[in-house]
Amino acid sequence: MSRILVPVDFSAQSIQAVRFAAAYAKDKHDLTLLHVIQPFPSRYVVNKLGKEGVEKIQLDEAKEDLKPLVEIIEAAGIAYQLEIVFGNAHEEIAKHAKGEYAAVVMGTRGYGRMTGFLKQSVSYPTIHDSKIPVFLISEETDAADFPWRNVLLTVDGSDQAMAAVNKVIGLSEGMDVSFTLLTVVTPPVAYTGMYGVGWEDTATLEEWGRETLRPYEELLDERQVPFESKVLIGDPAMLIRETAQEKEASLIALGHHGLGGIAGTLVGSVTFKTIHRAKTPLLIVKS
């Protein structure tokens, strides 16, 4: 039986992530709850009480504050272990994710890209560095849909998108799941003059989209997975969120190209834009 890594703090997002992980893990996976305690910032207090004394206080407080999360796992009857370590959250999660885990499940506050960077978001560096799939769960997700029933597969012709489709099919084995395959074509930059936008041949853009979908449709047919296909034209992140709402998707699967927070901001990463204020659970996969 494989394991799921669930980094947790004391936030509402972490509580939802634990609920999601428990719903998915049942009868299939064990869970590791990982809580990272930041080193105490005051040298004066550490010197006064001693490092061991400070860490004992922090450890006791963490165990007490984590009880609501542990109770969720125990009520679900899921095998788990709780690991509490001292250090940098991002570094400790990355270190643990190199172990024998099937996926990472963690809460996200849905910050914008620059806000997330400034507030030292843990989810952004985790999806950038992790070699295994990462589920991101917000506080506003509907726990009644956990783990998932309707999956929105967002693809762009990349190897990462193909990896995401393969991965979510594998993770959905044994579940009654419907799939929507979506590609969004961004119109070429066009001069807007007195007669309007220069690019008007939407049929060509739709044909590009159908060509993009073909390899994924062949894969889904080969795996005997029922699905429907959609080609949309416009802003990818906005249309992904709108389609997820329209289809009542309980999971959005995305391939990630591996750009970091700053690089993703500069080039307009669809992954980071989709994370921003996302209410639907996300599965981020790198090839």
Description:
This is Universal stress protein. By secondary structure, the protein is α/β, with parallel strands linked by helices. The protein has two domains: 1-107, HUPs (Rossmann fold, 3-Layer(aba) Sandwich), CATH 3.40.50.620; 143-287, HUPs (Rossmann fold, 3-Layer(aba) Sandwich), CATH 3.40.50.620. 44% of the residues lie in helices and 23% in strands. It is built from twelve helices and twelve strands. It has a ten-stranded mixed β-sheet with strand order 3-2-1-4-5-12-11-6-7-10, with helices on both faces. A two-stranded antiparallel ribbon has the order 8-9. Helix 1 (12-25) packs parallel to helix 4 (67-76) and helix 2 (43-49) crosses helix 3 (51-65). The chain is elongated. The chain starts with a strand and ends with a strand. The model is unreliable at 111-119, 190-198 and 261-268 (pLDDT under 50).
Could you give a short description of this structure?
This protein is an alpha/beta fold and 287 residues long.
Q: What labels would you give this structure?
A:
Universal_stress_UspA, alpha/beta, two-stranded antiparallel sheet, 12 helices, UspA, Rossmann fold, 287 residues, Universal stress protein, Rossmann-like_a/b/a_fold
Output the structural class: alpha/beta
Beta-strand content estimate:
15-25%
Helix % is 40-55%
Task: Give the CA-based shape.
Answer: elongated
Low-confidence stretches: 111-119, 190-198, 261-268
Family: Belongs to the universal stress protein A family.
Domain UspA: 2-137, 148-286
Protein name: Universal stress protein
InterPro entries: Rossmann-like_a/b/a_fold (IPR014729), Universal_stress_UspA (IPR006015), UspA (IPR006016)
